[in-house]
Automatic annotation (TrEMBL):
Keywords: DNA recombination, DNA-binding. CDD domains: INT_Rci_Hp1_C (cd00796). Residues 1-41 form the Core-binding (CB) domain. This is Tyr recombinase domain-containing protein. One of its GO terms (molecular function) is DNA binding. Belongs to the 'phage' integrase family. GO terms for biological process: DNA integration; DNA recombination. PANTHER family: PHAGE INTEGRASE-RELATED, PROPHAGE INTEGRASE INTD-RELATED. Residues 62-235 form the Tyr recombinase domain.
Amino acid sequence: LRNVSPLMIEKFKQKRLKEGIKPASVNRELSVLKTAFNIAIKWKMADENPVRDVRFLRQPDPRERILTEEEEKRLLEASTEHLKPVIMIALRTGMRKGEIANLEWEQVDMRHREIEVTKTKSGKKRIIPVSGGLYELFLSMRGKNGGSEFVFQYEDPKTGERKHLKYFRRAFESACRRAGIKKLTFHDLRHTFASRLVRAGVDLITVKDLLGHHSVKTTERYTHSGQEQKRKAVEILGNQTSGIRSEKVLKLAPICHTEEDDEGRIPA
């Protein structure tokens, strides 16, 4: 390990790029190497971390695809009976696909109207409040669950039995095709949830907690402004400026246009 130099790491980085590996994947590999060398230093197996002197690759901005309200309506209309509640939960809670698929009834507190998400990406549980619309949806679904521990199920077309809905990628893609919606992934529903909250004026700390992000830095990606928001912001500023000019700017005009004497003093 002591013979590994920054130049060797740099050559490894370039080699991976030539092999067609994406910058984000190469950066993750470099992060693993950096962590490994930090451990090696701690265990007295290395003296320095060569990865520290290697610049990580610049990554393109994260892909953003936000579902419009009109697209949401079309998507729900094109969805099958078992897929529609899945999409509604995703858009109203921001839960990840795996969190939704593995959601159990014991995690849904109907009394306090909360969802306790336990099997999370970060390993930390989080609590998501249930809106009125979702509460009614859960009530209707509870009556059809047939005693299953899982919230989301589907009816087997061959046997008529209700089974745990573990996977719904194909059903989602088929619904998108029928609705004429392109370049939309299921994870984009989570992006839509977060972006709508931010646009509605919800603070980033609350959005972070609902999404289960470790840092608010991750949540900041949703603070982008739409064209309509920019237009409204300019209009607000324009209205404020008009008021200031009529009440204050004109009052300052005599002072601003008063000539100074030879010594730079303003005559009384």
